[in-house]
Amino acid sequence: MKKILFYDTTLRDGNQGENINFSVEDKLRVARKLDVSGFHYIEGGWPGSNPKDIHFFELAKKTEFAKACLTAFGSTRRPKTHPKKDDNLQALLDAETKAVTVFGKTWDLHVKKVMSNTLKENLAMISDTVDYLRSNGREVIYDAEHFFDGYKNNPEYAAKTIESAVSAGADWIVFCDTNGGVLPSELQQIMKEIMPQIPAKVGIHAHNDSGLGVANTLFAVEAGAVMVQGTINGYGERCGNADLTAIIPNLHLKMGVSCISDENLSRLTDVSRYVSEIANVPPFNGRPFVGKSAFAHKGGIHVSAVMKTSKAYEHIEPEKVGNARRVLASDQAGRSNINYKAKEFGVKLKEDGSDSKKIVKEIKRLEHEGYQFDAAEGSFELLMKRISGQFDPPFHLESFRVTTEKNRDLPSKAYATIKISVGSREEITAAEGNGPVNALDNALRKALNKFFKAGLEKMHLVDFKVRVIEGQDATAAKVRVFIESRDEKTIWSTIGVSEDVISASWEALADSFNYRLCCKVTGEKEKAHFKKLGVTQNEK
């Protein structure tokens, strides 16, 4: 069985994606993560193109990589320039990586019209570059840029460019679908025609402009490629590169190709989210295998089936890629959804099913009004406890007032006054904020701190979203407010709906604090304090 090697280019090709800009420190952190996660080659950047990548490779020289081979990237020599006098090639050597990757032109269109070069000189540039790098002891990976477009336009010349790299000693020939426009059937046919002419090892580098990056990579492996280039989460220029988080499990689990250990496969979701966090790009929930929604079930019939046998609606076990099954609550939910979530939340429901029926009925009513509980599980857990009689609110709102002041050229200020009751005690506080919701949050926190300071000191809001439910009513329309909160261990989401954005915000805000005080395991001292105040906590 052939073994596939993974070549990650997130730090170079992925960094060319819109809104992605890794710092040097970011690149080192990602490189270390990829190294311990079983990736074979890590492309660190193009040292001949910018000072940041030069700095990265300087720091990388002091970094030990357990298994991965760090690779520097660059182009062939410039026209009519000796390799020793080419600054780009010298930068590749100065990076001191064991392997280097260079790209050259395969498509005669680029040679003639983009570079204003001759076909003969282009072949010499490829040959001279590979020979020079090999003579300096480097493993050479030759990326044949625009290979498939070049082959379709002029197959004879495209083959000559590959021959130039092979004859000069290239260790790898990587076919690149740089424009991302080739179809899988075309790709496989071209590879079958060219492969018998290539004694070197072959790889594939696909882009996703036609949504076929993953498919083309899998087809290339079937045709004989043994190196797979791509990026984590498919980051890259335009529509991105082939997504390694989809390629790896497809090869390992579906095609039975030796490529990664089961242990490293189980880290894939963590790698995806880690890189997403470093790149400051919100994770795409619908990403295959590693997305938050990849194994999420909403329809009651689906949930009922999955509870009996997971493969009824799951193509693999989510744990194999480090993901987890999620059951969502919505107006499409049935009793199976509710029973599953009750078990997950540690909520005890009556065995006769009466609690489940009430919860399903209430969800359908509230979602008709605009609520969306599949995206606000904190509010959903509180709802289940209210209906089943297991929720004792730690505080009650008596009243609040919010005002906003705007002077001509000065930033606006918001002020909130709030009155709450905790048991028989009442507390009135006031606070200001950057906006009405922030002021309300500050006032509520200030009031609650008089009773629950230990439970709230590490809690803070991380996201606030407002959505108009029915746009035809313009400014009088209902709005849906989502609030995401977190502490040192957990993230939870809550929801509020109203025609008034402040009222909707209050509802989501109150649920957020209620969830922290009533639905989370806390320290023994904190539990004892809550018990003294008459607050019931659910232990999960």
Number of domains: 3
Task: Order the strands across the largest sheet as they lie in space.
Answer: 1-2-3-4-5-6-7-8
Task: Work out the number of β strands.
Answer: 16
Alpha carbon gap, first and last residue: 46 Å
The proportion of residues forming helix, as a percent range, comes to 40-55%
**Beta-strand share of residues:** 15-25%
State the CATH topology of the largest domain. TIM Barrel
Q: Any idea what the radius of gyration is?
A: 29 Å
The H-level CATH homologous superfamily of the largest domain, spelled out, is Aldolase class I
In the CATH hierarchy, what is the architecture of the largest domain at level 2? Alpha-Beta Barrel
Total helical elements: 19
Name the overall outline: elongated
**Which class best fits the helix and strand makeup?**
alpha/beta
- Provide mean pLDDT, rounded: 89
The CATH class designation of the largest domain is Alpha Beta
Low-confidence segments, given as residue ranges, are none
What layout of secondary structure does this protein have?
Blueprint: E1 5-8, H1 24-36, E2 41-45, H2 51-60, E3 69-75, H3 87-94, E4 99-105, H4 108-114, H5 119-135, E5 139-145, H6 147-153, H7 155-167, E6 172-177, H8 184-194, E7 201-206, H9 213-223, E8 227-230, H10 244-254, H11 262-265, H12 268-279, E9 296-297, H13 300-308, E10 326-327, H14 335-345, H15 354-369, H16 377-387, E11 396-405, E12 413-422, E13 425-433, H17 436-456, E14 460-468, E15 479-486, E16 491-498, H18 501-518, H19 524-533
Parallel strand pairs: 1-2, 1-8, 2-3, 3-4, 4-5, 5-6, 6-7, 7-8, 9-10
Antiparallel strand pairs: 11-12, 12-13, 14-15, 15-16
Helix pairs in contact: 1-2, 1-12, 5-7, 6-7, 8-9, 9-10, 13-14, 16-18, 17-18, 17-19
